[in-house]
Amino acid sequence: MPFISYYWIFEEDGINNYTEIVIPIGCMQLVFHMGTPPFSTLTNDYQPITFVEGHMASHSNLTYHNHCKQVVVVFTPQGSHAFFNIPMLEFYNRYVSVEDLNDKSQVELRDKILDMQDKCSAISMIEDFFMNKIQTNYNFNRICFAVNELEKVNPVSIKELSKKSCLSYKQFKRIFYNHVGINPKEFARIIRFQRSMNYMQTNKNITSTLLAEKAGYYDESHLLREFKLLTGYTPNEYALNCLTYSDYFIV
């Protein structure tokens, strides 16, 4: 459905100070920790047991200890708005615990999921829960259209996109921000970055010059500057230190 992109599950025992980099992916997520939550440099604290993760502005680190077990719901960019009672912009660059969502049913879902041993059954329960919570408004199709346009290698300008969406420039930015949780210019920037990750995943020997061209950057220096800002590394450094894959463009 156009609301949830995918689910992922991670479980590992005996982890001791394992650190991974977390980068902007272009989607909001709902995270259930069934084991020990990791320590995050975003908040300088351990992550909540269950929380909604908004769009991230840049990279951060997670450090895992002991037993790690988590189930994660990755929403489509336009999908999360259908399930939560607070404006999406309030999630920006934050972890928002389910207790702070003003929705008792989300807390009840958390309690049920944390008591379940079978992860596939947990995903089925989450799926049923969200199927019954879908609420959209008359702007939903506009936002779907805008997201599809911004996913293109060379998208139109935000002003042109607002015209295509039959909205003023100011209206479009406000509605997009309220529905997606990030402004359209920054969203397009993250999608371009995720596209570069996708090319690095499928072509291990791609040069920075070709990567910049394929992903839609102005030139190589633009790619290097943006990549460094979002990951802390150049593309070559990232490939040497981290797994190169896109969380948005799934292969």
Automatic annotation (TrEMBL):
UniProt GO MF annotations: DNA-binding transcription factor activity; sequence-specific DNA binding
Gene3D superfamilies xref list: Homeodomain-like (1.10.10.60)
Protein name per Swiss-Prot or TrEMBL: HTH araC/xylS-type domain-containing protein
UniProt keyword annotations, A-Z: DNA-binding, Transcription, Transcription regulation
Pfam families listed in its UniProt record: DUF6597, HTH_18
Keyword S-adenosyl-L-methionine: no
Superkingdom of this protein's organism: Bacteria
Domain HTH araC/xylS-type: 141-241
